[in-house]
Amino acid sequence: MEQYLTIKKFSKLTGVTVRTLQYYDEQDILRPHHKSDVGYRFYSKNEMLILQKINILKYIGFNLTQIKTVLKDNKFDWLSSLNLQARLLEDSIKKMQDSIMLINHSITKHMVEKGEPDWAVMAKILEVLKMKQNSTYQDWIKRNFTDADLAFFGEMAATQNNEENAILWKKIFADAKSIMHLPPSDPKVQELARTVMDSANSQYEGNEGLKGKMWDLMKSGDIPENFIPGYEKEIVLFLNQAIGILYNSK
């Protein structure tokens, strides 16, 4: 490499456009080594190294304002900044994976029905995916559900009346709580157990695995707060006893 390069040669060598180098100079991000009396820019090996830093920082997601701070501030908190950037990139990866899931759902829909996507279903799936990104539910969702499960939840939300379902389960839990003093074999409890099973079968029709998974989570108490209106672990355990008796009586 020559001791000093013109901006055109420096651009050709680094693959960064002349206009970008001019902009970096104007914004005090990367100054040339020096300028001639008539304003021509000249670059050295040192500017090459700085440009490498800029390219790396841009690649991992830093914006130019952040890059300028990094280059100018010797006390810059690298560890905190890199940890934050890693989390942002992880979030971006999750969003891209969710986008792929939506695309695949659309492709499947098109291949089966030869029509355009069901936008109502897609919108509901998106709502579920956004919930997945909410910090309250992230760990719980990741721990318990697959993308296929989330797609099914989305289709449930699109094809069923969510408000009616919420009211129904709130009533079921309230009714169960009012009769927990009775033995699980009592006819009133058995009638409610049958209502629980009929409601669950209707909501999860065609997906016995997910229905069982949700019921197991409810029995274990692993349900986010306010996720299911009226839910209490003790009520579910009481209903589970009643359902066991109901099945054994058939």
Written description of the protein model:
70% of the residues lie in helices and 3% in strands. It is mainly alpha-helical and 250 residues long. A three-stranded antiparallel beta sheet has the order 1-3-2. Strand 2 and strand 3 (41-43) form a beta hairpin. Helix 5 (78-113) packs antiparallel against helix 6. The mean pLDDT is 81.
Features of this protein?
mainly alpha, 3-stranded antiparallel β-sheet, 3 strands, 250 residues
Task: Offer a quick outline of the entry.
With about 250 residues, the protein is mainly alpha-helical.
What's the topology here?
Blueprint: E1 5-6, H1 7-14, H2 18-26, E2 34-35, E3 41-43, H3 45-59, H4 64-72, H5 78-113, H6 119-133, H7 138-144, H8 147-159, H9 162-178, H10 187-203, H11 208-220, H12 233-248
Antiparallel strand pairs: 1-3, 2-3
Total strands: 3
The helix-strand sequence is EHHEEHHHHHHHHHH
Approximately how much beta-strand content do the residues carry? under 5%
Mean pLDDT score: 81
Low-confidence stretches: none
CA distance, first residue to last residue: 87 Å
Number of DSSP helices?
Answer: 12
Q: Specify Rg, calculated over alpha carbons.
A: 30 Å
* Largest sheet report: 3 strands, antiparallel
- In order across it, which strands form the biggest sheet? 1-3-2
Helix-strand category: mainly alpha
- State the helicity in percent bands: over 70%
Shape label: elongated
